[in-house]
Amino acid sequence: MADVSIEFCGEWYEPKDDDVFTIGREGDLEIDDNPYLHRKFLQIAHYDDIWWLANVGSLISATVADSTGGMQAWLAPGARIPLVFSMTNIVFTAGPTTYELSVHVKTPSFRQEHRDTEAVGETTIGPVIFTDSQKALILALAEPMLKRDGTGLSSIPSSSQAAARLGWPLTKFNRKLDNVCDKLDRVGVAGLRGGGGKLATNRRARLVEHAVTSHLVTAADLPLLDEQLDAED
Questions:
Q1: What predicted TM-score, i.e. pTM, was given to this entire model?
Q2: Contacts of 181 (CB under 8 A, 6+ apart)
């Protein structure tokens, strides 16, 4: 078995120590024929006795997290990060599509233990507290990604689609989206600032990437969507 293996949509890839493994529209792992995706976006390579993940694109960032959600980083163009956990999830959005793949390291440098916590009442991430309606908003955007099975691809709903899923007017949805993003931005979650149009699309995608990889929302939370919809009736 190779020291590093990569899984995407049920397919496995095993780069060798002397390889530079390329991920993008073209390369060793051809993700998708998506014009919003760089031909060469990510690279995985081994040097200084460590496996590294590098963003070699110019526009798209990736959210990188360990399997417990306890560590998360935002990998901007030109940045790199060591792959030190036994499993690392990588999530990124190109145009309307969000992709997820996982990297498995046979001999990781670190092992992180998962600690279960009981959620009581409102959801708290550090000093941030989310109401049920704010959490429902996150779920409405993350629903397609939470429902897919394993790594692969999914779509980010538009603001109007997510508002309709919740039974809210679009103005209410946008106001609450502003509140959620402001709360997370204040505690250092990158990529959530911005206004309407293209920036808003990127902001929704970044919110979903952060929420899913940090386990802020999980598939077990999805019933809250219907509860919120019933409350609006």
A1: 0.85
A2: 192, 193, 203, 207
Neighbours of 25 (CB within 10 A): 17
> Can you tell me the distance from the alpha carbon of 13 to that of 175, in angstroms, rounded to the nearest whole number?
43
Q: What are phi and psi of 225, to 5 degrees?
A: -60, -50
Instruction: Give just the sign of the alpha carbon dihedral 132, 133, 138, 140.
Output: positive
Tokens at 48, concatenated = 């200084």
SS3 track for 71-109: CEEEECCCCEEECCCCEEEEEEEECCEEEEEEEEECCCC
Residue 222 gets which letter from DSSP?
T
Per-residue pLDDT tens digits of the chain, which is 233 residues long: 569 999 999 999 999 888 899 999 999 999 999 999 999 999 999 998 899 999 999 999 999 999 888 889 999 999 999 999 999 999 999 998 999 999 999 988 766 555 554 444 444 445 578 999 999 999 999 999 999 877 889 999 999 999 999 999 999 999 999 999 999 988 888 888 765 544 445 889 999 999 999 999 999 999 999 888 777 65
β 87-94/62-66 pair status: antiparallel
Q: 10 Å Cβ neighbour count for 108?
A: 17
